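JOB MANIFEST
job_type = single_chain_structure
chain_count = 1
residues = 191
[input]
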Amino acid sequence: MTDKSVLKVVIIGGGIFGVSTAVHLARLGADTTLVNDGPVANGASSRSLAWLNSARKRSAAYHKLRVQGLDRYKAFAASHDCSAWLRFDGGLTWDADNASNQIAEIHRHERSIGYQTQLLAPSELGAVTPGVDPRAVSPKGAIFNAGEGWVDLPSLIDLLLMEFRELGGRVVTDAGAAEVTLANGRANGVR
């Protein structure tokens, strides 16, 4: 790319991955169009629990990626008025009260990798998560991960789209199914 040329990009998909990719490309100066089959956030992003965490056991690389994601969300929250839809109140998990219960092992694992974790008896839950019925939790306890949170993805998508449009990005909704067109084995458009 020379100084006189502008990269032209079409992103297919108006969920969090597509919108985030589009706004990041627009920030870099790319002429970016976002195309979605229906309204934005009409797929998985509208139905996601969007729990921000790296709880339980994961590969080291995947844990690192998820922790970096948590850090990015926390930095974003610190610089935006988004407390109604992006929060870090912690996460609570427990296992069934049977032989498959691994809660103590998971807690030890999380501690061993430096992940913020507390193993709580059911009677201690009210101190960190008011409203959870302690009778619902196995006597073996639950794990509270204080650094975890959640995000309402449609709200985040709306905020990112405002910036995207301010940067000159174009949004095409209700386009129906879109697919990449190829020429000589290279992407050259969308139909």
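[summary]
The radius of gyration is 21 Å.
The first helix runs from residue 16 to 27.
exit_status = 0
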